[in-house]
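Justification of resources, computational component.

The compute hours requested in this renewal are based largely on the per-chain cost of generating structure records like the one below. Each record pairs the submitted sequence with a full structure-token output. That output is archived, and it is also reused by downstream analysis tasks.
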Amino acid sequence: MHRKLTALVIGISNYPDGSTLKNPTNDAEDMSAALEQLGFLVIKVKDAGVEDIDRAVVSFRDNLNSNDVGLFYFAGHAMQVKGENYLNAVDSNFDDEISAKHSSYPLNKIIELMDSCSNSTNIIILDACRNNPFVRSWSRGPDQIGLASVYAPRGTLIAFATSPGELAKDGAGRNGSYTEALLKHLNTHDIPIEDLFKRVRNTLNTITGGKQTSWEHTSLAGDFYFNISVGRSVDIYSQDAISDSLFSLKPCNPIRDAITALKSLNWYRQNPGLEKITIRELDAGDENSLFVLGRNIYQAACGGANSASGFISAFREKTDGMLPGKVRSLLDGMLFEIFFNSNGEIRKDFRISKFNDIFKLKVFTEYSASFEFISEVLLTYQNRFYVIPGKSRGIGVDVVATQNEDGEHLIEGIHFEGFNILRKSNEAASWHDEGGAYPIKLDDLKQTLSNEMVVPISQLTVTTSFESDKSKVLFPYGMTVKK
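The structure output for this chain reads:
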């Protein structure tokens, strides 16, 4: 299950006359990063004027009409005027209530715009009820403290940092108290959004010593989860096949015997265990067993088991005569193992040693369902990829290098879509900081880029700024193009 998600995140700290807030721009940065990790396409705006907000909202509206879920987040000052809520910008005029109203951004404008778009779900989050010094200077009754409650159209949830009539607390650290609590729970797997905000409310109560209570108004018609685990999003295979550490190998049968052998990590058991299984026995297997078998064939091949490596290299011959659906389960498992660990979680480091061997099969139309399967699963994690594996899109990179006095070409940049993606690796050894480079052949460079970018080598075009077949090329130590 793939959802298309978009968000507009605004954080305003730099209010006039020395009334700067310390948290909102940090809140916007951290919320943007968290939402991007969850698959949202994020428009981020900080310390904006009203016109800046309006331009961002126009772009957001265009995104809403091509996405399933829209999220609007605002951190900063806001106010109510006669029951209507307004978001204050850096250029809002606070001389009096009327001036402030007409120089701020109406919350209802956001609500109505989101409701008018074609997406099915809208979420509005407001960390915006801080004690506003400008509003305090006006003559106002207690009924105008904080923000007014609002109507949530069908398919919309509106979350406030406080209950109506209360004020929000600045955080003691980097984030406001409400956003701090929200960030603690946003990435939690498989909880409905209503339950997530209950957890936020409890955490906020703890952070503020019971002085702040968050509040939501919802008219959502269906369930929404910020973070759906792959086990929930994949409905073809069982949960214990997705988390194959839970997969039962009882009762014994030829396929489960082969899985047991492959899990041994012992070549002397792995090789004969896989070699003796027959096409007839594979055809008799259920989809979950074949999926798990595929996973373990791939992991054994990455570990150097010859039988598993041979099975992958000769996959068409090894599966010739099997029912198409059974072949698909086997290949689905191999593809899944590249990207997900035995708990069904996305890997920090993908298993790419046999990545290109598997993706060579993409040219055969009988395997298209498997590549569609893995691309659909990985769309949830699109921030981890330059191009979603399984898609047919080819990409090109430009290698930029400078020539030294010895005639060697030192790579200084790898450019993709106009940006230099070459950067220092987080895992770089300390001695790499001193510089230096190692020689690399163009074919090896292309293989390295394919592995680190997780792009099949058949879909990768590498263009150089020099005569690559005649030049000595140096790659700087400690650098990477990994996402």
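The radius of gyration is 27 Å. Residues 5-228 form a domain with the Rossmann fold fold (CATH 3.40.50.1460).
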